[in-house]
Records
---
Amino acid sequence: MKIPDEVLKNWTALRSYGDFKKIVDKNEGVTQNDITRAFKNRECSDTVFVAIAGFYKDREEAIREYMPVQGSAQNSKMQTPANPAA
């Protein structure tokens, strides 16, 4: 299957050293060569796509846990001065 450009950009932004080995370790039948070809050629089998997509979806969710939520009370407090002029 063809990997959409936006999906590949997202994976590339989240990618770090050692990811391919971690994906292979979690997914039987997927090789590091399969993953390398997917990133290089922008296409892969459905099995490889699901393996990569699942890995980076988990990483993205973990990162979001540490990102401030827009409009949250904490963000609102940080944006208002401690002693606003009356």
---
Amino acid sequence: MKDETQTAKAFLFKNFVWVAGLGMAVVNLYLVTKLAPLSQAISNLELRVSANEDRFTSLERTLIAIDTKIELIIGDVGEIKGILRNRE
């Protein structure tokens, strides 16, 4: 029994890098399985944020166009007021 324990210890010391690499591989696989849903959630969130940014940009363009039209209408109203004052 003692020889088997010493043989196992000797094997681990001889192949420490290999055993440590195997241990790290197992830990990495465990972490990947736990983090995969988080990665998918982040991807979905990025997609939703991108869609909201596109909507915001479209809304901003619409508001700028409305503002321009309002400014034109105000200018036209000013001209009409001027014409009506000159008539009197």
